[in-house]
């Protein structure tokens, strides 16, 4: 039995509320169970120096956790004077995941920065950030298209992510914190809307896993991503 009482293949409740901030070109608040992430997308008519003059655009991301997003207060990274390794790794994951669903030539020489701020954490924050980040990105691109600043839709597919793992010997979908902290195997699966893989992060956390178990986790992830894509499409409809 899972701590939440969910079935092995059952996602947490997912909701995506759009237009939650006044100034960002695209914004949403995604809730996956008790994990809540605010995602905003900001348009800039510039690109990083390494692609200037190429005619291509750029999508990047920043990620952070608010001090009381967890059970005890954490120190703001700004107070420490630098980002932690986990933060850097996650925001790079978000950026390259979102770029996988973008035609950068169609975007033109402009940058979209997606900021993902964890308001409340209960496992799967990077997956929620990627899934909500795509919604914010979609809304920002819609504004570009409405203004006639791009002639072709730069977004070629949805991008969503979900966690899967082996908890108490059983493959499970969408781990919350009690499961994530005790899982023998933990994985994050990032996919396009057609289930093509962008990235898989799998690691043994005190146990090991077989090829058959990995295939089972992949099947759970595909089903979970399909549900998330439906939620994304409904949010931006």
TrEMBL record:
Gene3D superfamilies: GHMP Kinase, N-terminal domain. One of its GO terms (biological process) is tRNA processing. InterPro entries: ExoRNase_PH_dom1, ExoRNase_PH_dom2, ExoRNase_PH_dom2_sf, PNPase/RNase_PH_dom_sf, Ribosomal_Su5_D2-typ_SF, RNase_PH, RNase_PH_bac-type, RNase_PH_CS. It comes from the Bacteria. Keywords: Nucleotidyltransferase, RNA-binding, rRNA processing, Transferase, tRNA processing, tRNA-binding. Pfam families: RNase_PH, RNase_PH_C. GO terms for molecular function: 3'-5'-RNA exonuclease activity; tRNA binding; tRNA nucleotidyltransferase activity. Residues 10-140, 159-223 form the Exoribonuclease phosphorolytic domain. Its EC number is 2.7.7.56. Signal peptide: none annotated. Phosphate binds at residues 86, 124-126. It catalyses: tRNA(n+1) + phosphate = tRNA(n) + a ribonucleoside 5'-diphosphate. Belongs to the RNase PH family. Homohexameric ring arranged as a trimer of dimers. This is Ribonuclease PH. It comes from Pseudoponticoccus marisrubri. The gene is rph.
